[in-house]
């Protein structure tokens, strides 16, 4: 890590940052001359900082604040090390960190540690998840009172409709996307295909599959930070909020995953289109945990505006082969690449918690060797299916009470997230939908 800074003497300052429960980067700015201390000794800030609400405020009655004396955690660098922050004008480096107790134990309220704990369950069985994430986002002109699509830097015109898979829509913002891909190369984020999506100014970029789920979550977290920062550098906003426009589809964050055994074989591949027993067990685990995990997949007030029938976001708890109306889709293609696509999460999620919930639910099902219901065919919106919680309060209550969630997340994580979301629910009820959009535009 130290060598990176010595090879980049132009860097004047560094940022050390960890993810809070909402996926916000919390940390410090440090002159580069003191970077060695941050690497060797770590840095310190209150444990409560990873448990702030969406406004960045302490949680009322949280045991992490006054009851504990607001004590510090020790934050150490992750395996990622230093990387550039290309959206800033001055040469700056980012050092991702995660939180530990004073005695070296992982802090269970840290989202990255929540995913690490799930992955240890796979390792204990000689298994390794392979993940790929698809992220949808909007480019937005928020300079006026009404949100709208930024004018094209090429033509000066604004899009007036969603243009699905339109090359013209991509080319209108070619300078932005070129700079974004160059920045991904600098930060070693494996950005692959970009497409124009169905919403106004909406795009999707896929990240390449990775056999290190912690790194896949890092990539998604860093990518969201990068896209928002790079958009501001180009004079507009980018947002991963679930539903900025009432009349257009919202943004999802879909994850594809398979599982390898200790010899590198895909345990979902049976040589045919249906997949193995283990694939079905993983599907069953995901379906069983879906009511309790809804708060992870739809963590904000605005999230539930996306999850309505006919909006390209699943509302029923179901699975299917090659069917994008279902919550769980088994894509077609080569049996060697047989995988599960989990389609519930919105773009506004915390990637660490989302992958922990998805992979944790799947390993629940694999451990229990349970069978799912029959896969559906046709339009899932028209079928009589058990429903994903459709409002924030129900999602919070379901998360707190879910036995499946209790197997995935530590009690401290469950408590902290419930306290956070109940506080946000209380204050968001006082705001209009447009005021909520203003809050979420830059934060998620």
UniProtKB/TrEMBL annotation:
Q: Record's SMART domains?
A: Gln-synt_C
Q: Which UniProt keywords apply?
A: ATP-binding, Ligase, Nitrogen fixation, Nucleotide-binding
One annotated GO molecular function? ATP binding
Q: Which GO terms describe its biological process?
A: glutamine biosynthetic process; polyamine catabolic process
Q: Which residue intervals define the domain GS beta-grasp in the entry?
A: 9-104
Give the matching InterPro entries: Gln_synt_N (IPR008147), Gln_synth_cat_dom (IPR008146)
GS catalytic domain segment(s): 111-444
Chain's role: Catalyzes the ATP-dependent biosynthesis of glutamine from glutamate and ammonia.
State the family it belongs to: Belongs to the glutamine synthetase family.
- PANTHER family from the entry? GAMMA-GLUTAMYLPUTRESCINE SYNTHETASE, TYPE-1 GLUTAMINE SYNTHETASE 2
What is the name of the protein in this document? Glutamine synthetase family protein
Q: What species does this protein belong to?
A: Roseobacter insulae
């Amino acid at each position: 890590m130290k060598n990176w800074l010595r090879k980049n003497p132009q860097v004047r300052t560094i940022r050390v940052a960890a993810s809070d429960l909402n996926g916000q980067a919390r940390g410090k700015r440090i002159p580069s001359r003191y970077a060695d201390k941050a690497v060797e000794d770590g840095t310190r800030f209150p444990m409560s900082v990873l448990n702030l609400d969406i406004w960045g405020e302490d949680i009322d009655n949280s045991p992490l604040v006054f009851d504990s004396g607001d004590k510090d955690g020790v934050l150490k660098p992750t395996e990622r090390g230093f990387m550039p922050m290309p959206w800033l004008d001055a040469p700056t480096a980012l050092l991702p960190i995660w939180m530990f107790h004073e005695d070296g134990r992982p802090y269970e309220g840290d989202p990255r540690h929540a995913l690490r704990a799930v992955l240890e369950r796979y390792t204990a069985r000689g298994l390794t998840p392979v993940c790929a994430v698809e992220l949808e986002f909007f480019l937005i002109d928020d300079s006026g009172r009404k949100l709208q699509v930024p004018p094209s830097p090429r033509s000066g015109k604004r899009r007036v409709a969603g243009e699905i898979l339109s090359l013209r829509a991509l080319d209108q913002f070619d300078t932005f996307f070129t700079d974004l891909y160059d920045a991904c190369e600098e930060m070693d984020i494996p950005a692959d295909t970009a497409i124009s999506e169905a919403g106004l100014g909406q795009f999707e970029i896929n990240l390449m599959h990775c056999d290190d789920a912690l790194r896949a979550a890092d990539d998604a977290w860093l990518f969201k930070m990068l896209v928002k920062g790079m958009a501001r550098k180009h004079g507009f906003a980018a947002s991963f909020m679930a539903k900025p426009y009432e009349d257009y589809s919202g943004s999802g964050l879909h994850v594809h995953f398979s599982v390898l055994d200790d010899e590198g074989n895909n345990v979902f591949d049976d040589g045919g289109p249906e997949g193995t027993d283990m694939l079905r067990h993983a599907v069953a685990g995901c379906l069983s945990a879906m009511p309790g995990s809804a708060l992870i997949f739809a963590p904000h007030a605005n999230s539930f505006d996306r999850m309505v029938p006919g909006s390209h976001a699943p509302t029923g708890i179901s699975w299917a082969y090659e069917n994008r109306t279902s919550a769980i889709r088994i894509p077609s293609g080569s049996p060697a690449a047989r995988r599960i696509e989990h389609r519930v999460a919105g773009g506004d999620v915390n990637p660490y918690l989302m992958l922990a919930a998805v992979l944790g639910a799947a390993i629940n099902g694999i451990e229990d060797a349970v069978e799912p219901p029959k896969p559906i065919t046709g339009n899932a919106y028209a079928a009589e299916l058990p429903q994903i919680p459709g409002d924030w309060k129900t999602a919070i209550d379901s998360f707190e009470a879910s036995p499946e969630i209790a197997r995935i997340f530590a009690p401290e994580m469950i408590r902290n997230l419930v306290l956070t979301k109940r506080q946000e629910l209380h204050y968001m009820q006082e705001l209009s939908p447009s005021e909520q959009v203003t809050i979420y535009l830059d934060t998620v």
